[in-house]
TrEMBL record, chain A:
A UniProt-annotated Pfam family: Phosphodiest
Membrane topology classification: Multi-pass membrane protein
GO molecular function: mannose-ethanolamine phosphotransferase activity
SUPFAM superfamilies for this protein: Alkaline phosphatase-like (SSF53649)
Protein name: GPI ethanolamine phosphate transferase 3
Cell compartment(s), UniProt: Endoplasmic reticulum membrane
UniProtKB/TrEMBL annotation, chain B:
Swiss-Prot/TrEMBL GO biological process terms: GPI anchor biosynthetic process
Lineage of producing organism: Eukaryota, Fungi, Dikarya, Ascomycota, Saccharomycotina
Protein name, entry field: Glycosylphosphatidylinositol anchor biosynthesis protein 11
Membrane-related topology note: Multi-pass membrane protein
GO cellular component terms listed in the entry, alphabetical order: endoplasmic reticulum membrane
Places the protein is found: Endoplasmic reticulum membrane
InterPro entries: GPI_biosynthesis_protein_Pig-F
Length: 1086, 245
């Protein structure tokens, strides 16, 4: 650009401004200047006339051009509109399918509104007056059973959570007649809301409630708080605000102190709040204010969520709990019953929600100073604390309900399924047990569940038995048997809805496969408006039909909404198929399919189809679902090696072959590295080792990513000579800067979560382990000096962190918010203005092998030996620009992903680029394998970013990256970006299969139709996976593992299908491809 | 748009043409031996049977013990292959270069066989890396993985090495880039190569039963893959028979 004879007045920057007119000017500029250079010297007047004529011509040309361009732009916009509408209809169809299935599959329990009333029937309460007139119930969230029993560790260091909370066991040993310690078995799902429902109503909350943990709705079932309220008792409460949603109306408003429960990063606010509000109430003079005091501590649970149980923060937290319980015991008077318990446990990562042993096993401790309490232990061998208390006596969590009710002189809640705890009642156990049996029998009768004659027989014999000791055993048998029945029964599925849901999804699959693969893509582009018309008409027809069916036939178990949904889905389906059937016949489509297998069938299509089939068959076996991550990796590597073989055999040019083989090998190595990052699910044990932890070297890796990733992307851009204008700004500046921002964010987070000094402490420890053999060696003296230096440094860091914690928090928030704002809003806005990665450059004709000449004709006309103007990066105009959009979304997703996951995602970007190069080299753009591979690597990165298809693996803590409390929509956005990050990236990146390395096309509609083909192909793939997953989940609904394996996987599939639809419509087609194609067409469309 | 795209990579066109000519000249690549039912590796299932006896309790030692047996059997198999070599007359018609090689190697059958075995054991290292890349565990089971790769390498590479008399150039001729469909013909007409492909496919399918939660002994790493490789190459060899001339 130094000497520019063609248009010296146009500086480089202006050309790159992407201003429409200037670029269009560029090709036509050489003509007048070339003419002007020769003519004025001959005849000035003639020259002026000529120039005027030329100018006029030029203006006319320009107007014509503009007119043509406008028409073409309009046409392009209409085509876009058509595609988007069709995709929206399709998404609606799938939405109805998934929702219908979900309603049939996720169970709901029939809640009986009956309430036990002891005024009507005094028989419901115990005959003897209650021993206790007050109760203190302390819930310590996530108090796993092995936290409270003595554990002898082999190695002296031990776990930070063992032997820190000894008070309960001490009391248990000391007062055999006044205390009892039991293992407390929760029912899944182990989320706090469900557990509170179970602990108060005595029934079994179902799975669908698990989703409402964020906004628990008031409880309308009979429960012992309600009973207390009815008996005019005053309930004081402090702690977890989940209780607020459930029980506000029963709690004494003067003694009600709820605290925000979901901010898991805050370890102390709730606990300190409980202690500060509880202790005054325990004083003698304030005791009459309450009858039952409930405290719910959350600290232990939050330590688990934030750091995991193995963290040092667990130690002081458990000691604090120990302290609190000791104080409470001290202040206890003789008429008060103390009850300490956990609502669930935690798994080895500190999370809960599922049904593994560690999550289910919690603690129950009851104690009273009253001499009359008369607790009666069973045989001592029942209370065996060896082996982490594996054989310790266990009671069900719901057993607490009849126990507390009867002890406090209340009737047992109507829907209770628990049995009274034997030890607590001592000699009164028989009466308690029979009372419970009567309550359960009543529940059975009212609920219409009393068909089982064998249970009825047992009941009759209990009633006839009277005070015979054998009735105790009968009662126990009766209760446990009925509980089992209920557990099995409340897994009632609505098979009709399940089948309809799967059928709708299958229908959507038949359409999308025809739309994407069987009809030529150019034909599809002309059919959009027929689709729109027929779908709207048919949907209305379907609605009317379903309405009339609803009115006339009045189906019993179908609500109107359900009828309408099914009607409109049939309408959409028919509407989508009608135009296809109008133009093509079934025979033609089948022939098309046959043709595909005969002519288009090569190794790649075989691979693509077998991957799809293989992946969809995974759901037929629970083991394969469990090991899905490895299976996906196996598929990906198969592709990689096939690619390698093909590159070696097929590519003739040596230079290209070497490049292609290098791409293959780097792809293979990268995906192996990625598959090394795993967070094992429980079922994968013992064959799997989790390594998804935030450690200092993963933080270091983030800095490595910030250093390397921009360079790698740059090198891919230079391959097509596209690293110009917008690219350096986006990649060189923006990406680098923001990635360093991410790294700093996670460093601060790491420093904060490890109390800063910890990492330094680790170094010191390591140095100390370095046995100093010989003090005289100078190296050892240096080491000793280093030790002292490090210890002082660590102390300084520790101090700085403890002083500067608020500072760190605000810096973290600032980084996260700035990064989110820049990437999601600023960068996307500026991208929508259409940045191109091209540069005007001049070259002598001899070395223009790199780029397309702009003006072939002009050059030949002037017949000069002048240097020609070339546009660098012309060959990859679309791809280079579109990838910037992918980067816009990659950065925020990497921010909300934990360090190892962010490293994996950075490799995802490289993998995408490598795949694109390979698709281009091997000419696979139109092949089925390309979108399938994109789908597979999305799954691979779902697993390597610390996720599994389980509810426990949702990384709730990233919700608080941009805000300190739960704020809609930021918390939710973070969680969505974290959980579905790889799928979002892949969904956005899929048009690159078409766009990468193609020059501007004069037929943008053709390019668009190819993009839509790839988008719908990826959708087809996901539709098959989801449909198969849903169908198998429905099929295995009675499988032992359904709630552990199949149901979470179906939820993942359903959400994925819907969110991919939304992302591809809104971001990929409408925003991304739309802006880019119109922009490039405006500039280059001649 | 594809026509335009070519412009940027114009150097490709000339080289392709050159290579095309080359390939046309050598389009009829010779298979250096006569296929026969005798060349079906019937010894493989026998060895597998020997190894399998006790493999379930202790895969590592049995795999190690199996290697000498396999080497001995493959040695014998190698002799069978050399017996089936096409006479040098037919070869010399096509190419003088290879006939020279033939004459040399024909005299050194033992060296050829021993060399092939050594080379296939060496080739087990890249194969080991390939198995790791496919997702073999990195913790604890590396020895088993390596033993597996030695076994597979002896089964997959050794017969090909012997049949081409360690002449890599001649082997590559059957895979000349750009020869298109002919490659596939070469593949299934060549009994030994097809057996190797069968072995690879067998090993690939051998992976699939591992995740199942049946808790069977034979699901241990790497038994299924080993069995898949053995049986696959046997089947491949048999399936190739009808196609060979």
């Amino acid at each position: 650009m130094e000497e520019s004879p063609i248009n010296p007045s146009t500086p480089k920057d202006e050309v790159e401004l992407n201003d429409e007119m200037k670029i269009i000017d560029a090709p036509s500029v050489p003509v007048p200047t070339a003419a002007g250079a020769t003519s004025p010297e001959d005849d000035p007047l003639n020259g002026i006339l000529q120039r005027q004529r030329l100018l006029r011509q030029q203006q006319q040309q320009k107007q014509q051009l503009q007119g043509r361009i406008r028409v073409r732009q309009q046409k392009l916009k209409m085509t876009f509109f058509g595609y988007i509408m069709v995709l929206i209809f399709f998404a609606m169809l799938q939405f109805i399918g998934v929702i219908t299935f979900t309603q049939g599959f996720l169970l709901s329990r029939n809640v009986l509104p009956d309430i036990a009333d002891s005024q009507l029937d005094p028989q419901l309460v115990m005959s003897t007056p209650p021993v206790y007139d007050k109760m203190i119930l302390l819930v310590i969230d996530a108090l796993r059973f092995d936290f409270v029993i003595p554990v002898e560790d082999e190695n002296e260091k031990g776990k930070p959570y063992h032997n820190q909370f000894p008070v309960l066991y001490e009391m248990f040993q000391k007062y055999p007649e006044n205390s009892i310690l039991l293992k407390f078995l929760a029912d899944p799902p182990t989320t706090t809301l469900q557990r509170l429902k179970g602990l108060t109503t005595g029934s079994l909350p179902t799975f669908i409630d698990a989703g409402s943990n964020f906004d628990g709705d008031a409880i309308d079932e009979d429960n012992w708080l309600l009973q207390l309220h009815k008996h005019n008792k005053s309930i004081a409460f402090m702690g977890d605000d989940t209780w607020k949603a459930l029980f506000t109306e029963y709690i004494n408003p003067d003694l009600f102190f709820p605290f925000d429960s979901l901010n898991v990063w805050d370890l102390h606010t709730v606990d300190n709040g409980v202690i500060d509000n509880m202790m005054p109430l325990l004083e003698k003079k304030r005791q009459p204010e309450w009858d039952v005091l409930i405290g719910h501590f959350l600290g232990v649970d939050h330590v688990g969520h934030r750091y995991g149980p193995d963290h040092n923060a667990m130690k002081p937290k458990l000691s604090q709990m120990d302290d609190v319980i000791r104080q409470v015991i001290e202040k206890l008077d003789s008429n008060t019953l103390l009850c300490v318990m956990g609502d669930h446990g935690m798994d080895s990562t500190g999370n809960h929600g599922g049904d593994s042993k560690d999550e289910l096993e919690s603690t129950l401790f009851m104690y009273s100073k009253n001499k009359k309490s008369g607790f009666k232990r069973m045989d001592q061998s029942e209370y065996n604390v060896d082996d982490l208390g594996a054989n310790f006596r266990t009671v069900n969590q719901i057993d607490l309900v009849p126990t507390l009710s009867l002890l406090l002189g209340l009737p047992i809640p109507h829907n209770n399924l628990g049995s009274p705890i034997q030890e607590v009642f001592g000699k009164n156990f028989q009466e308690a047990s029979i009372k419970t049996t009567k309550q359960i029998q009543k529940f059975r009768t009212v609920a219409g569940l009393d068909e089982d004659e064998s249970l009825n027989d047992i009941y009759v014999s209990i009633i006839e038995g009277g005070s015979d000791p054998s009735t105790i055993e009968f009662s126990k048998a009766y209760q446990s048997k009925f509980l089992e029945q209920c557990k099995a029964m409340w897994a009632t599925f609505d098979l009709k809805l399940i089948i309809i849901g799967v059928l709708i999804l299958f229908a959507s699959f038949t359409f999308v496969v025809t739309y994407s693969r069987l009809i030529p893509s150019v034909r599809v582009s002309t059919m959009s408006f027929e689709f729109i018309g027929s779908v709207i008409a048919m949907m209305l027809l379907g609605l009317v039909l379903s309405f009339s069916v609803y009115v006339v036939l009045g189906p019993v178990d179908f609500s109107f909404r359900r009828c309408a949904a099914i009607g409109s889905s049939i309408g959409i389906f028919v509407g989508l198929w009608a135009p296809i059937m109008d133009r093509f016949s079934v025979a033609w489509l089948l022939h098309q399919l046959y043709d595909f297998f005969i002519y288009n069938f090569n190794g790649w299509s075989v691979l693509g189809i077998s991957f799809i089939i293989g992946h969809s068959l995974i759901f037929a076996s629970n083991s394969f679902v469990v090991w899905e991550d490895k299976m996906i990796h196996f598929f990906i590597q198969t592709f990689g090696f096939y690619c390698l073989a093909q590159c070696t055999i097929k590519i003739s040019s040596k230079k290209e072959r070497v490049l292609a083989i290098a791409h293959c090998i780097s792809f293979l190595i990268m995906s192996r590295l990625i598959s090394g990052i795993t967070l094992c699910r429980e079922e994968q044990q013992p064959y799997c080792q989790s390594n998804f932890q935030t450690s200092w070297w993963s933080i270091l890796g983030l800095y490595g990513v910030a250093l390397i990733l921009p360079r790698m992307v740059k090198s891919f851009y230079t391959l097509s000579d596209s690293y110009h204008s917008a690219a350096p700004l986006w990649i060189g500046t923006g990406l680098t800067f923001l990635l360093y921002g991410n790294a700093i964010y996670w460093t601060l987070e790491y420093v904060q979560s490890n109390n800063g000094g910890d990492s330094a402490y680790v170094i010191i420890e390591w140095l100390e382990n370095f046995k100093i053999v010989n003090d005289e060696l100078p190296i050892n003296r240096i080491l000793t000096n280093l030790q002292s230096i490090f210890s002082s440094v660590s102390k300084t860091i520790f101090l700085a962190v403890s002083v500067g914690e608020p500072l760190i928090v605000s810096i973290k928030l600032a980084i996260a918010r700035i990064s989110m704002f820049i990437t999601l809003i600023l960068a996307n806005y500026s991208w929508s203005r259409g940045p191109l990665c091209v540069k005007l450059s001049e070259q002598s004709p001899s070395d223009d092998y790199l780029a397309e000449e702009v003006s072939d004709e002009d050059a030949s006309n002037s017949n000069s030996k002048k240097n020609s103007v070339v546009i660098l990066g012309y060959q990859n105009v679309y791809g280079s620009s579109y990838f910037l959009l992918v980067l816009n979304f990659a950065i925020p997703i990497m921010l909300v992903t934990k360090p190892l996951g962010a490293i994996s995602l950075s490799m995802l970007l490289i993998q995408i680029l490598t795949l694109l190069e390979l698709f281009q080299i091997l000419n696979l753009r139109g092949n089925l394998i390309s979108p399938v591979m994109f789908g597979l690597i999305a799954y691979q990165h779902f697993y390597s970013t610390g996720h599994q298809a389980t509810l426990q693996s949702i990384q709730w803590d990233v919700g608080f990256i941009t805000t300190e409390t739960i704020t809609f929509p930021f918390t939710h956005l973070n969680l969505a970006l974290n959980t579905f990050g790889s799928f979002i990236l892949i969904s956005i990146a899929v048009p690159l299969i078409t766009l990468w390395k193609i020059p501007p096309s004069s037929k943008p509609i053709t390019v668009l139709s190819q993009i839509v083909t790839n988008v719908t192909s990826l959708l087809t793939y996901q539709t098959i996976i989801s449909t198969s997953s849903l169908a198998f989940a429905g099929h295995f609904r009675r499988h032992l593992m359904v709630w552990k394996i199949f149901a979470p996987r179906f939820m993942l599939s359903g959400i994925l299908l819907l969110s991919m639809n939304v992302i591809m419509i809104v971001i990929t087609v409408w925003f991304g491809s739309g802006k880019l194609l119109t922009q490039v067409n405006r500039i280059f469309g001649k | 748009m594809p026509t335009k795209a070519k412009k940027s990579v114009s150097f490709q066109a000339s080289t392709t043409d050159e290579l095309k000519e080359e390939t046309n000249a050598e389009s009829q690549v010779e298979i250096p031996f006569n296929s026969s039912a005798l060349l079906v590796p019937f010894h493989l299932p026998v060895i597998l049977g020997f190894i399998f006896n006790g493999l379930l309790e202790n895969p590592r030692t049995l795999l190690i013990q199996g290697i000498p047996t396999l080497v001995a059997a493959q040695f014998g198999y190698g002799i069978l292959i050399t017996k089936r070599f096409k006479s040098s007359n037919t070869n010399s018609k096509k190419k003088s270069k290879s006939s020279n090689n033939n004459n040399k190697n024909n005299n050194n059958t033992p060296i050829l066989l021993v060399g092939s075995i050594l080379i296939s054991i060496l080739l087990s290292i890249p194969l080991f890396i390939v198995i790791i890349l496919f997702g073999a565990p990195l913790y604890g089971l590396l020895t088993e993985t390596f033993l597996l790769s030695v076994h597979l390498s002896l089964i997959l590479f050794y017969p090909i090495l012997v049949s081409y008399k360690l002449d890599f150039a001649q082997f590559l001729q059957s895979f000349t880039p750009g020869s298109g469909d002919q490659i596939y013909q070469q593949l299934y007409k060549n009994q030994l190569i097809f057996a190797s492909i069968g072995g690879v496919v067998g090993a690939w399918f051998g992976v699939l039963p591992i995740p199942l939660d049946w808790d069977r002994d034979w699901q241990q790493w790497p038994i299924t893959i080993l069995v898949g490789g053995y049986i696959g190459s046997l089947l491949g060899s048999i399936l190739s028979l009808p196609f060979s001339e």
